[in-house]
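Changelog-adjacent note: as of this version, every example in the card shows the full chain rather than a window. The one below runs 242 residues end to end.
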Amino acid sequence: MTDADISATDHSEHDEEGASPTSGQLVDDSRRVLVALLQGPFLDGRKDRDRFGQLLRDRAAIESRLADLFLELVVDDDAQVAFVRQSEDDPDAPKLLRRLTGLNRLDSVLLLVLRQMLLTQSSRGQRAVVSEVEIQQALAAYRRTASTDEAGFAKEVRASIAKLQRAGLLDEQGDSYEVSPVLRLMIGPDTAKQFIDLYRAVGADSLEEPADAIEGESDAVTATDAATATDAADGEARGAAD
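Full-length structure tokens:
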């Protein structure tokens, strides 16, 4: 029997079993949810009800597939958002996901301000919708410690807003922006406090303590990420002092 005959026989036996090498173990709808989660940055159930519903229905199976990749699923049923993050069970596991990178100090401060706005509005049962003017006003105290060029600072704020839009954390709503509820999960209270303490140390003392600090949630951003950002911000602070 030739190699070709053996190959043909193998394919024939495979077809008789009724399986496909690309069928996988998940149903088709769940496979599409899995791909959407891996593509990131998150799954928004308000905008994609079908996929979010499928995620909830087949959550155990999807979590199992993610665990095979050293990933874990984070879901907020009330906010209807879900995303995946690296599992911390095995620190030596290969890293599959890319974190939100390229953030400067102003970007980080804006994230903290938006997160606080989100918590405040969520506690009232409202969506967090904010205008550019409100963002500029919220960052005004930080501007006084970072820049005396008001027009230049406003331009930098708009650049930060655009960056967070591209990351899916701000959704343009006419003249305003809605803060994605996933932000509360992506930056937990412990990490938020580390960043706030850091920026207070370099003069941005207007940032408030995270409102959910007592909840003790696990953070999506690790202490290593916070330390890296701390080093970068300290470097910027030293550069500004020079």
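Structural remarks: The radius of gyration is 23 Å.
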